[in-house]
Queue: 3 jobs
Job 1
Amino acid sequence: MYGKFQQHLRDELQGIKDAGLYKHERTICSPQGAEITLADGSKALNFCANNYLGLSNNPRLIAAAKKAMDERGLGMSSVRFICGKQDLHEQLEKSISRYFRTEDTILYAACFDANGGLFEPLFTKDDAIISDSLNHASIIDGVRLCKAVRYRYENANMEDLERCLQEAQAQRFRIICTDGVFSMDGNVA
């Protein structure tokens, strides 16, 4: 049984390669930045990272992370839901809340996790989520995970957004969902 499935997987993978769709991963041998060094020693401009604010190579943050690792180790060894959070996480969340003047903040390890955990618990089939067509894939996936009625409007097109709002008028809540900065082209919402 397993041999048959294994052969099926090999055939599928070969089909992907033959179609020119196989993804070869790059091995990066330098810190994140605008320019990175690849395993073969070549340099490349890095247009695909999510390091918009330069946080991954900020010297102050690196020093703080080293200090935290020396004092606390490498992490929680489990997810927050099971293990809880460290006081350092709580301090950062409170600091972010003060900065943005919000009631509370929750940290996620990745935006994909945040978007996956946002929509599903908050919205039901009675609600509508109206999403910009150029939203990040993790937002789109998060919206797909929930039961809300989904609408999509053309990127930054207010007339099309208005059309969606009108179509969704009967829903309990109508939520407009957009990126702050669209990652594929850098445009601000």
Note: The radius of gyration is 21 Å.
Job 2
Amino acid sequence: MTVSQMRRRNVPQRYILPLQHRPTLTDRNPMQQHCFFTRPLPVIDLSSLDNPLLRSRLVGQVSLACKEFGFFQVINHGIPVSLTKDALDVAQEFFDLPNETKMRLASDNVCKPVRYGTSLNHVKDKVQYWRDFIKHYSQPISTWIDSWPSDPPTYKQKMGKYTKAINDLHKKLMGLVFESLGLKPDYLKKEVEQGSQVTAVNYYPSCPEPSLALGLPPHTDYGLLTILLQNQQGLQIMDKTGNWQSVPVIKGGLVVQLGDHMEVLSNGRYRGVVHRAVLNSEKNRISIANIQSLSMDTKVGPASELVDKRYPVMYEEASFGGFLKFISGNNIREEKYIDTLRKQKSIR
């Protein structure tokens, strides 16, 4: 049974986390507890992206955000509000469909190009997570769009325009991130242009007891960047001190998170950000996460320019496809793919 099917007066036992894994033990709103705002979260204005005189300042801001948080938000990124609104609206329309319609897309196979599901991996999860989702491959869009949901009727059109815009933004952001590492902005240009994009459309219904459950457990994404749109607050990131910080919803803003692939490529200079999804008792939440990386079978290792005496090769090469195979047989709460790739601890 998916979360959206349930009548939610209480949290069923299968969703209740052990005490040590709960987002908070005392307050009914996890977003107001155990989140210590030690530093403002970075917001980067991209309006000067194409101005060569101001680009170096942007690169510096990206460098600081990646080093300190593995995360930033962007504004004035060039994607019209109409596209983000359409994407969120059609996502809501999908989750409002009759359950039998959505279940036609249900699958336990994490490698399937289009699949509807609940929790994280409901077959293997010892505790279920308060989330329903539709995931699909989105790049190259001409290859995958015909396999996307046909209901709602406008899903392909609206989500297609949005994911294409995100993919274009990703290319620009990768140039900034590469520059911030001392690489050329067109580093791996062809590989990035031919890369993969996995779209995860997540639905987190309101939860009667949000202090007992999570929408998603603490984890890192396996990709270069994840670009996320959210309509309600619920994303939390872990900062360097081990404290959780809630990510505010900024009008017109998009969340950018570094993934494990970026940690490997940067040879440990940057880290994938640990994050989780918390719940609230009043509002449903939708997020659309586009996980961007190279093609599924392209292996990524540390950039040779970032290997030196202080930073010898610290990671094995790995592909996005290898990650999918790993998570199909492992509990990411107990074992992380990035840990299997580390050769030694990085020097900080």
Note: The chain is about 25% helix and 20% strand.
Job 3
Amino acid sequence: MTEQTDAPKPRKRRRRRKGRAQGDGDSTKDETPRSQQNTSPPPVVDDPETFALDQKFSDLGLSEKVQKALDEKGFAHPTLIQSQMIPFALDGKDVLGQARTGTGKTAAFGLPALGMIEPGDAFSAMILVPTRELAIQVAEELTDFARFSEHRIVPVYGGQPIHKQVPKLEKRPEIIVGTPGRVMDMNERRHLPYDNVKLAILDEVDRMLDIGFRDDIRKILGRMKPNRQTIFVSATISDEIEKLARSYMKNPEKIVTSGKSLTVQQVAQSYMSVERWDKPRLLSHMIRTEQPGMTLVFCRTKRTVDKIQKSLGRDKVDAHAIHGDMVQGKRNRVIRDLRDGGLKVVVCSDLASRGLDVEGITHVINYDLPEDPEIYIHRIGRTARAGRDGIAWSFVSPDQGDLLTAIEMLANTEIPRLEIESFKPGPVPGDVRAEREHEAGKKDQEIKSKSRALSTDNLDEADTSKFPGGLVPKKLPPKRMMGRSRSGRR
């Protein structure tokens, strides 16, 4: 972390909110060599809500080579999802597992897969994931766990030319990690057969259904042998996921280790009321004065991602971007550098960040508040992983009070407002002022038009179609400033 500036720290103060989100009236890159950086702090293994402290990995019946890899990495206690899923998976049972993000889901299904699949048994395990980033990440994690075995794990995903992935499949790897679209494409081209799949795993099922992979999933599972073992892992288990599980599983064991609301209790959440045009200044101010650790900044659109990255760069904040239009190689480099601890600030879109599982994220900033409250839960779940604490800041404009309330209802918590006394709002931009004046002029014109329509002059000649039932009133209601009265939300 770079040296802190002498700028004043924001004073946190909770206040009763009336009109919820209503507004009132520079950093450099760490030059430490990557090999010397503490890329991610060790998991906090004394948290009983995350870890099964009464168990050890050596109690779960994993293979000797997998256990050796765990010992070398210093992993002793499994997480709750790992302690419950691994024994069922090793017994060959179908499993439907739910766990919040950052609780070790990859190891929960990956470790038993390495123990059950024999080296040389080509294409015997298929792992489906929603995004290419997650495909790469899961393959890397499993390869790390397989350091003492002969298993070959190959990721296949869109965004990279097929001819670059085919040679790896021609070596007949045992475990495939892929996105549904590319897996189907490889199968149709006869590069990736399904007939030997003994273990099918679907990770982040809820995300895959949200993206629109429902039909692809059904086609892929439908073409596999019915006697395979199937594992579903999801942050939420909806009725649709339950129905999908019943269609492709045999008496699955259901494991739930997190509440349906997905509340991330270890995340310190707060919001800041700010006008839309002031958000770039506030973001830069918070990063330069607060000096957060590894930070993800979420935006709704790719255009905003690029805009904010450039804005931060002008303020001497070293920020990198991730979104769907980036060249795959560049995206991979950014994610790799983030995972290695070489980046401090990454600006990303929701779609590009799906499946982005990086240890050590300390802060999540919702530059754009998501329209779907569940996306908010997934965003802040990027921090506070493996028993560690995290911080989430949200920028809320004066017209987003209802959306903030919806998020609080889903998260089952009141998000306090954070007062930033060291930040002074800027002037209203000329284009915004002109737009407001234009809208005010339109409203004035509408009021005058309605007033003329309801004139009491020449009532006999009045157009009766302007009045309910054609009845012309003898006395008109007083004029009202329609839409002009001030409200609590502005």
Note: The longest strand covers residues 267-273.
